[in-house]
Amino acid sequence: MKPTGDMFLPRRKTFLAGTALERVFNRYLTPISIGVTFIGVVLVFMGPVRAALGLSASPAVGGSTNPAGQSQAGLASLSNASMLEPVEFNRQLVAFTTIPDRPRRSVGNYTVQSGDTLFAIANKFSIDPKTIFWSNDVLQDDVHMLQPGMELAIPPEDGVYYTADGVRTLQRAADEYKADVNAIIDSPYNELAGYTPEDVPPWGMKILVPGGERDMNIPNPVRTVTDQTTGKVVSGFMPGMGGSCPAGTPGGGGTGSWVRPMNDYMITQTFYAGHSGIDLGAPVGTPVYAADTGVVIFSGWNDWGYGILVVLDHGGWTTYYAHLNSKAVGCGQLVSRGQYIGQVGSTGNSNGAHLHFEMRWNHTPTNPAGLIGF
Ligand SMILES: [Zn+2]
User: Fold this and answer.
1) What is the CA radius of gyration of the chain?
2) Mean pLDDT value across residues 19-41
3) Cα(152) to centroid(ligand 1), Å
4) What domains sit in the chain, N to C, each tagged with a CATH number?
5) How many whole angstroms from 323 Cα to the centroid of ligand 1?
6) Model pTM?
7) Confidence check: pLDDT of 283 > 80
8) Measured in angstroms, how far is the CA atom of residue 281 from the centroid of ligand 1?
9) Furthest CA-CA distance within the chain
10) Cβ–Cβ < 8 Å for 128, 165
11) Where does residue 373 rank: exposed (0-12), middle (13-18), buried (19+ CB within 10 A)?
12) Which residue from 11, 13, 99, 355 has the fewest beta carbons nearer than 10 Å?
């Protein structure tokens, strides 16, 4: 249990919450009652002891120099303390406590508007875009899941806002999110007064982890598969998914020199955590070109939100062309740098016509703007 000085502020909130009242009493009132009883007993016995020793009574005990009267006062306070109803006792304590004047702050909500980007929303609320991902599982760490009308939780400060599973202790959550467990318990945004690190918050409780973080789940559709007959590892691209080319489709070596995949565009979203590529806005039908020479290893509809997708293998590097309206190349086809491969569209999880362009080095998304002058 925390020192009593700090304890009163969060208790006030829990007291108001009503439903948690009983738990608060169970947690606090018993130790407090024992403490008060102990003080009462000390007062009762101090009187006779002092009288026997011929000492004058301390004014703090009752203001009386009469040992007998003092003992009665001590007894009275003892019985009062013992018989107080918990609610009465709580009110007395609150009366001596400084209650915060500020209105209770909380995690806010934001309804996604048409044309919003995750980066712009984060800027609007002065928080890190990652915080929005870490507070909204519905986004699945993929900015293209953002849809107009979607309700997003907006924490007042950076961290992780998670929903308790009824199993994990606060300490385990703190460890997983690399945060201080006391910062979670003490946060004015949480209803965790009286909790200890080993307590398990009830299922469904929303909890803010100030300063918390976790790894981003980068959508990585590439799978390494092993050929069961030869035992050899072959690189397959989304095995079993329509549009995926057969495992073992030979990769092609690129020239190592890149060209822009489009001539006319407007950058609508840059590369950042949660956005594994760059968005180039342009009207539906705008031509899209291969950024370098390579082999088509995916061509078709993608269930991961990319819509109609073309992926080229350049040997180590792969490039992704997503949300296409139509594609002009097929599996295993060798395409040369600058070759026309499809048209801009808005298929899959897309908010307006644009090309989502990715460059991955050994499957790891890399900022295209660092390699191609956009
Ligand atoms: Zn994108």
Assistant:
1) 32
2) 46
3) 19
4) 4-95 (no CATH), 108-210 (3.10.350.10), 222-370 (2.70.70.10)
5) 9
6) 0.55
7) yes
8) 10
9) 107
10) no
11) exposed
12) 99
